[in-house]
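Q: Fold this one first, please.
A: Sequence and structure below.
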Amino acid sequence: MTQRLPLVIFALVMALIPLVPGMPPFWIVLLDNIGLAALVAMGLVLLTGVGGLTSFGQAAFCGFGAYTTAVLTTAYGVSPWLTLPLSLLVSGIAAVLLGIVTVRLFGHYLPLGTIAWGIALFYLFSKLEFLGRNDGISGIPPVAIGSYEMLSPGTIYYAIWIAVLISAVLTLNLLDSRTGRAIRALRRGHIAAEAFGVQTPRAKLLVFIYAAVLAGLSGWLYAHFQRAANPTPFGPQAGIEYLFIAVVGGAGYVWGAVLGAGIVVILKEVLQSYLPYIFGGQSQLETIVFGILLVMLLQLAPSGVWPWLTARLPLKTARRTADTSLTLPARERAPSTSAVLLQLDKARKQFGGVTAVNDVSFDVKAREIVALIGPNGAGKSTTFNLITGVLTATSGAISVLGRKVENAPPQEVVKLGVARTFQHVKLVPDMTVLENVAIGAHLRGASGAVASMFRLDRADEARLLAEAARQIERVGLTDQIDQLAGSLSLGQQRIVEIARALCVDPMLLLLDEPAAGLRHMEKQRLAALLRQLRDGGMSVLLVEHDMGFVMDLADRIVVLDFGTKIAEGTPAAIKKNPEVIKAYLGAAA
């Protein structure tokens, strides 16, 4: 209840504002516009700030929502309330059609793509006869409850802000879920997310549609607020402004959308009202001053005003507790015989004329720790990427439990019980340790986005967080469970990655330089943990440069040099192998 108290207070304050004696109608209109902008910016918070997809075209989705209700209510006499789901549906369908193409774009092509279709749709709205071309559609009936018509800004005010509050709650619920963690993981690239079963195209499309539906809701409210719809509010300039609002408020924060909308809308209105008096109305300087002030604001608070403000308030984040008595179903354990879990048969990977992995063959058996060693550039991490589906093999065969995986995507490989860490740590720095580790259990949950928004996933979520807390305790980081992952040392971040991989409940654990950045005692604890995992039925394949760590831990060692396997055997045999000594260990070994 204490977590919801600020929301309740905010709702009460917003409800009482129109009732204040002498409240100027102009301020109510301004608050209406802030609420409409906040809805669009809230979608951009999820799309851009959380999901990492920059869009300049959200205003077009407002147009879909506005024009849908405008046409149906004026031409066909449909009730405004009946047009609401249809407006959201049309916006969602448009997002599906545009998103299938857009979310596959990367880098600067993504925002350029959104600008392109944003401009195209703006001109489409202005050219279609049944949409009134440039003049638009007027005479849109007001929203009504019985005989009560929301004709004035003060009456539709409550409809707008109820929509804002409901959307904020649903968005916060979505982010605090299995689906939300998958979306948030997209900001750090798709490789780590896919390694734990996240279907990244589906997750990107989901957030794209959700943002479009919120924009469509804003457009529906706008049409019945203004009682008219024309192309101007749905053009490229409005799309850029909505993105400004999200960035100014704090691109990764839901309430930042509301704050950013308030700042930008009020600032624009003040400048448009007073600058003409100051400069005699001879030039339109408000756009220039507006841009300068926004740049100054972002210099003061580069991450947005909301995080800047909350960092300076005496607020305490509630500690997340997980009931570790809750459990998830375990995967079937590897048999105690010498069954082969992983088999590489002449695996080869070429990048143009460069051969990174040259016909490498080896296997990993059940209850075995195998080390993959070699000098820098030997092809060790590339071999990991071939095994886990990040890269496809040029030739050869790779199988897990007898199933071919050389051309399988990472999401299919992890389903077989293969989990991994990365040479370069791939955590989400602004998520807590608990949330990062819980991403590893993504495939072990079942609740979807809709269930998450309405808090129907709490039992499933409790089990996922309990599993994450259990693995964090297992690796010895319980004291850091609520810290942001980005605040930890590199060594601790590597341990967090191991905990995340353990949440898969894997049969085969691939560790890429797990001891890098660890102190001596931390390495000893890690070695003890890996032996414990092996004795419990798990196999481990690790890449490591610390030869003392490897020689004391591994059951077998495979040595690569320039992508070619030059030796394989027990640690004692590898120490004495002349080729290994020459290529990697050196005479001192």
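Q: Good. Now the second chain.
A: Here it is, same layout.
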Amino acid sequence: MEGYLALVLHAHLPYVRHPEYEDSLEENWLFEAITETYIPLFLMMEGLIEDGIDFRLTFSLTPTLASMLLDPLLQERYLKKLERTIELAEKEIARTASLPDFQPLARMYHRLFRQVHDAFVNRYEKNLVRGFERFAKTGKVEIISSAATHGYLPLLSVNEAAVRAQIGIGVEHYRRTFGQPPQGFWLPECGYYPGVDAILRQNGIRHTIVETHGVTRADHRPRFGVYAPIVCPSGVAVFGRDPDSSRQVWSSAVGYPGDFDYREFYRDIGHDLNLDYIRPYIHRDGIRIDTGIKYYRTTGKGSHKEPYVPEWAEQKAAAHARHFLAERIKQVQSLSSAMDRRPVVVAPYDAELFGHWWFEGPRWLDYLIRGIALDQSTIRLVTLSEYLDEYPVNQCATPAASSWGHDGFSQVWLNGENDWIYRHLQRGAERMEELIAAHSQATGLTLQALNQASRELLLAQSSDWAFMIASGTMREYATRRTKTHLKRLLQLGQQIDSGIIDEAALQNLEDQDNIFAGMSTAAAFASEGKVTRQEVAASDPASAGSG
């Protein structure tokens, strides 16, 4: 064995929960991901375990996604949605009886949805977080934490309290969820700036991941590029994303998901079929939405699409897995002779790519993992913690400020479309610090209001809103969410300072924005506890490593 491959799946969705609506369009983001990504990946891993296939995967599970998966309201809403989808699939079997290109597909979807339903209700008892925990206990999966609401830390760092709160609450939520502290931490959008590692270290974090140039442009040239971690002065190990494995999956031009035999994401019967027929399965106001039933393959770059052929897609998934594995073997073989340790190829992807955007993604992953286990002996799958256990001493360097996304330096999250939000987020963090300082001994209703104010600020800080505004997708919703949470923060602050708190209104906010319920989130914004990189390194000089 000459080297390692570390597959990292970033499981994240923004916190979307609208008890005030019976049929929230945005909650469908979660429901689609459960049906198309999380449960298919779970079933894939169960199959590997049942067949005795050794593997390693790393998942980052963000607090926002975990909170939604644990929420009884969303669990019940998802189940109702899934049962309606099964009903639609049954109707599709009848409707396509005389359509030989489509009826096998209708039957395929019916089987898939029934399988997902059985897994959600019986195997995982509606609680997918416990499913993640079950896989972690096998030793084959490492789950790492992330920031509280996926705040983009480099741009929040104008106010250090905001970064400390995002990291500290994220780590504490992980500890409460899984009963132990995390070793790894996913920086939202791979957003790194020098100094954030010190706050990670203060919270007990051992390792994180940055974009390729975060490592290659470190203040000291990395001896092994991105194929071994570097260690910050704080002691946090930083792994860099491998560009080659990323390109083969992510690239819109040459990436596997764009193959013409794979399923076309953008053709769904929710938009194609007669409105009267499809009406019971779309939004109650008649707004057409995806149902998850898609009958066409990518076919080509134009608008014409041919019927989807699952057998062709299955063959392509197997072939692409073999190709990916062959490329990693060549990569590791070329690297190993030039290194004093086994190289590690770090391949992080959004988990929702697998199954949701790329329908065949879980099958590709299954073929890849089986091929690594059974068909070669050059590389082995590894978690980042396992790699550090084998190689605890690494080169010291500070990564460059960086992100993933267009151009790699925060442009997606700071541009002419969304730059207006940051002065308000900065003032919100300052306001939260002022409230904590002025009411440091608060108890009872005042403390409740402080905690809810901090939750509103955290929700406003989500990087997802800036992304949506910049991309033009759901811009109105993202703008409204940003403004609404900041407005609630300011209103609560006024009530706290006046000593007149509207208890009924507070209860209503707690019912709507109930993330981190039971946690003292306000305390995380206290000005005490600021830490510098030098202080962290000095407190644990041996952790920095050398060599």
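Q: Anything worth noting on the second one?
A: The first strand starts at residue 3 and ends at 11.
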